[in-house]
Every structure is written in C-alpha cells, then in structure tokens.
Amino acid sequence: MSFAVIQMVSQDDIAANLLQARRLLEQAAAAGARLAVLPENFSALGRRDAADLGRLEASGEGPVLPWLKRTARDLRLWIVAGTLPLPPDDQPRGKPRACSLLIDEQGETVARYDKLHLFDVDVSDSRGRYRESDDYAHGEQLVVADTPVGRLGLTVCYDLRFPELYGALREAGAELISAPSAFTRVTGAAHWDVLIRARAIETQCYLLAAAQGGVHPGGRETYGHTAIIDPWGRKLVERADGEAALLAERDGVEQASIRERMPVVRHKRFFAAAEPRQPDVETL
Ligand SMILES: O=C(O)CNC(=O)[C@H](CS)NC(=O)CCC(=O)C(=O)O
C-alpha cells in the first residue's frame, strides 16, 4: 500500500496552483499511491485574503472544495488537502482556520483538522516577521482517521515543534502522520530534518512531510525537502525543491515489530494534558 507526498511552489493564482496540483496528483495515482498529501496552502500562497477565500468556500461558491472532490473521485485517490482557509462549520462567517481536510476516493470529506499552533514568530532574517494569527484562528482538537494505508493523524507545519500533539496522536492510534508544511528557508535549514525525523522516531509512525519548496510571491522562500520518514527514522524519499510527487510504501509488519521491541508507549512516565488547552482569554 503506497502513499505519496507532493511538493509544490505555489503562487497567488489559485487556478494555476490547482493545475499544478492536478498534474502531481495524477503522477502519484499513476504510480500506485492510494493516498497523497498536498503541502500547506497548496491552492494559494502569499495572499492576505484568507477570510474572503474561506467564506467563499464555505458558501459553496469557491473553486477549491469542488476541485478536491472531483480530483479525488477522478483519480480514485485519498487526498490530505494540505491546508486551505475555512471558517468553522458552525460559523460560516467566522475567522478562518488553517484547515487540513481528508478527502476519500469518492470525493467525500471524512475528517477536518484545524491547525492548533499558529506561526507568530520573528525569524532572524530580513523579512522574517510572521503573524499567522492576524489572518487565522487556531483549532481546538486532535484528529485521527482511518484510511486504506492505515490510521492517520493530521498535523500542519509549525505543529512539528510541539511533540505533545504527536504523542497524543500516537496514543489515539495513529500509524501515519501528515505534516503539510511551508517552512521558512531559514528555520527549515536549521530544524526541518531533525523535527520530522524526531516526530517519526518518537511516535513510531510514518511521517508524511509535504512541503512548499521554492520562491513565492513577494520573494518569500520556503525550504522544501519534502520527505517520507519511516517509524525507525529512515528517510525513504526526499526532494530539495521544485515540484515533485514522491512515493513510499508502508511496511506494517516492520512497524509492528519496532513497536513491540521498543514499547515506548508502555514505558511512558510523564503525561501531557489529553486535550489542547482552551483558547487564551483576551486580557488587557
Ligand atoms: O502563510 C502562508 O502563506 C503559508 N503558511 C505558512 O507559511 C505557515 C504559517 S505563516 N508557516 C509556518 O507555519 C512555518 C513554520 C516554520 O517555518 C517553522 O516552524 O520554522
């Protein structure tokens, strides 16, 4: 049972990004992938109109959700739709979440994960001030779902720095974890490789790390290095930058053997809170 990670160099033109994504998903499906992970903000990168885009999609008039449905069905492929801005289901006019949808091969949405940790960070480079929370609100729960390649835990990008989330996904039964990303060049060069391998090793899961890799509008550069890491921490595939569809296969027997021979879940002595903490109360 193989799965794919897709690397893109998304721009601010949604139609062009969807064409690029379609080509890469076709390659993945033709090579035999049953599930493919798109990168963070695959459909639009470098725009500041997340609220408008999210409301448009929620109203059913947006371009991305119907495209996802159609593509999954045409290619008979499960898709982890990187991220796209979407308001909460029960507040169609609310602030968008950075939302990672899991679409099945019939085109139905079977899970929705809203990015828990928002990237409000001053990176030490010339243009490096990021305030994701200006445009997005954070999510509030963990999400795992069953897929044909195994039980999947969903995460996004900056989440990679919060191992408690990954530990909780493992305890919720995850066998694979998706991490669609758009790491900055600077932080990626310093930390990406260690973060994705550490999350795979400590959870004994396959890490499906699908990244943006190249130059985007405004000269912003992402680190790329899309990869699949196996539960022993081996890098099965990797691409430094540019468009790519990379495949690997799950070895469930080996994964079970690693978990049995090194039963870290049973050895655990410190426990993080089971639920993410509630949204911060605004104080003056
Ligand atoms: O804003 C967009 O257009 C796309 N979204 C992103 O790039 C997101 C939020 S700004 N990036 C990250 O989370 C980078 C994390 C990172 O680089 C790190 O943890 O070091």
Describe the structure.
Keywords: Hydrolase. Belongs to the carbon-nitrogen hydrolase superfamily. NIT1/NIT2 family. One of its GO terms (molecular function) is hydrolase activity, acting on carbon-nitrogen (but not peptide) bonds, in linear amides. Residues 1-252 form the CN hydrolase domain. With 284 residues, the protein is of the alpha/beta class. It has a single domain, classed as 4-Layer Sandwich (Nitrilase/N-carbamoyl-D-aminoacid amidohydrolase), CATH 3.60.110. 28% of the residues lie in helices and 24% in strands. It has 7 helices and 15 strands. The chain has helices at 14-30, 50-58, 64-75, 163-171, 185-203, 252-261, 264-267, and strands at residues 2-7, 33-37, 78-80, 84-86, 97-103, 109-114, 120-122, 129-131, 144-147, 150-154, 176-178, 206-209, 226-229, 235-239, 244-249. The strands form 3 sheets. Strands 1, 2, 3, 4, 5, 6 and 15 form a 7-stranded mixed sheet that branches. It has a 6-stranded mixed sheet with strand order 9-10-11-12-13-14, covered by helices on one side. Helix 1 (14-30) packs parallel to helix 3. The structure holds N-(4-carboxy-4-oxobutanoyl)-L-cysteinylglycine.
Q: Give the bound compounds.
A: N-(4-carboxy-4-oxobutanoyl)-L-cysteinylglycine
Order of helices and strands: EHEHHEEEEEEEEHEHEEEEHH
Highest-level CATH class: Alpha Beta
How would you name the CATH homologous superfamily?
Carbon-nitrogen hydrolase
CATH fold category name: Nitrilase/N-carbamoyl-D-aminoacid amidohydrolase
- Strand portion, in percent? 15-25%
By CATH, the architecture is named 4-Layer Sandwich
Flag low-confidence runs: none
Query: In terms of structural class, how would the helical and strand content be classed?
Result: alpha/beta
Total strand count, please? 15
Number of domains: 1
Protein name: Carbon-nitrogen hydrolase
InterPro entries: C-N_Hydrolase, C-N_Hydrolase_sf, Nit1/2_C-N_Hydrolase, UPF0012_CS
Keywords: Hydrolase
Family: Belongs to the carbon-nitrogen hydrolase superfamily. NIT1/NIT2 family.
